[in-house]
From TrEMBL:
Entry annotated with the keyword Signal: yes
Signal peptide range: 1-31
GO annotation, biological process: proteolysis; secondary metabolic process
Keyword annotations: Signal
Pfam family, one: Peptidase_S10
Natural source organism: Oryza glumipatula
Family: Belongs to the peptidase S10 family.
Domain of life (superkingdom): Eukaryota
Protein name, per record: Serine carboxypeptidase-like 19
Record-level Gene Ontology MF annotations: acyltransferase activity, transferring groups other than amino-acyl groups; serine-type carboxypeptidase activity
Length: 373
């Protein structure tokens, strides 16, 4: 089952921001200074550029955006593409968390998370496209980047703008465990070579949908591995998951009772017309030039690439949750109440299966006097 978030897991942007603020604390202050505006190569197949303007967005970007590639397999030439947005808090705090975002699928670009879920940009769906022009981008103030440095990573290889230089196809053979290994390599290399200034910041791994299998495995990989002498230690503090795929024994059986409870009718369906805009935008030549995309590597960008030769060999992530929690790492699992792909009923069931003591009973959660969850 391919699980790409066909609509945002939680459409209430302000609720997502508040959830993040509740989990991530802040303190001392320091200033952030951006690097050069031109693309810079750091060797080993890694490169980056600071992007100050994006096609479709009026004026300079009101936040610091960096894009680039990190090579995670030099033999096959696997290069993962990323979007990095520094915390927008001013003055910045030197302990603003570093959050790695992985969109589900597998094969869905992290750009989907940037513009449709937790990032500071969104498409102007209300006014649409005028006369066939490039889709317009708007600033979205309800973003996790208000208080966190966020990396949106196109993973696994073949997703979004990530690619393998090995055109024989071997580099594109991937799967759950391979993706986890590549993500771990990306994090260590990105922090060591490109952003050593963020090594001490609290690190969180986040994602949604199919990433419910990947994120806990990445987190546990960080928690249990000993870095090589030349590699940096990662300051992992926890992980966040939205409507996560976790275990088919819980996820799939919950769909029928969920549909029964919801009483699904046609006018309750989400509007999906806005999702075509990301395809038009990302395949525009001026957009690719602005992002620093390597020419000829990804002929046609897809929001979700389901043709990746991907092996799904993590059948359940429950054991990772149990191990991480017993080690004292914090976690936040949130669910939108209208997601039938990964219903909250199944998520509640696997959480109960961990058999942890309940220290705070379930109760309504209010925001400004309104029920928020």
């Amino acid at each position: 089952m391919n699980l790409c978030t066909e609509q945002p897991a939680v459409t209430r942007g302000q609720l997502l921001l508040l959830l993040l603020l509740l989990l991530l604390a802040s303190s001392p202050l320091c200033s952030r200074v951006s690097t050069s505006a031109r693309a810079r190569s750091n060797g080993g197949g890694s490169s980056r550029r600071v992007v100050r303007h994006l096609p479709g967005f009026d004026g300079p970007l009101p936040f610091e955006l960096e894009t680039g590639y990190v090579e995670v397999d030099h033999i096959a030439g696997v290069r993962l593409f990323y979007y990095f947005i520094r915390s927008e808090r001013r003055p910045a705090a030197d302990d603003d968390p570093l959050l790695l975002w992985l969109t589900g699928g597998p094969g869905c670009s992290a750009f989907s998370g940037l513009v449709y879920e937790v990032g500071p940009l969104t498409f102007d769906v209300l006014h649409g496209r005028q006369g066939g022009e490039l889709p317009r981008l708007l600033y979205k103030p309800e973003s996790w980047t208000k208080r966190a440095n966020v990396i949106f990573l196109d993973s696994p290889v073949g997703t979004g703008f990530s690619y393998a230089a090995d055109d024989g196809g071997a580099g594109f053979r991937t799967g759950d465990t391979v993706a986890v290994r590549h993500i771990l390599a990306f994090l260590r290399k990105w922090l060591q070579e490109l952003h050593p200034d963020l090594l001490s910041n609290p690190l969180y791994i986040a994602g949604d949908s199919y990433s419910g299998l990947i994120v806990p495995a990445v987190a546990l990989g960080i928690a249990t591995s000993s870095p090589e002498p030349h590699q940096p230690s990662l300051n992992l503090k926890g992980y966040l998951l939205g409507n996560p795929v976790t275990d088919d024994n819980f996820d799939t059986p919950s769909k029928i009772p969920f549909a029964h409870r919801m009483g699904l009718i046609s006018d309750e369906l989400y509007k999906t017309t806005g999702y075509t805009m990301s395809i038009i935008w990302a395949n525009n030549d001026t957009v690719r030039e602005a992002l620093g995309i390597h020419q000829g590597t990804v002929p046609s960008w897809q929001r979700c690439n389901f043709d990746i030769p991907y092996t799904r060999d993590i059948k359940s992530s429950i054991r990772y949750h149990l191990d991480l929690t017993t080690r004292g790492y914090r976690s936040l699992i949130y669910s939108g109440d209208h997601d039938m792909g990964i219903p909250f009923i199944g998520t509640q069931a696997w959480i109960r299966s961990l058999n942890f003591s309940v220290v705070d009973e379930w109760r309504p959660w209010f925001v400004d006097g309104q029920v928020g969850g």
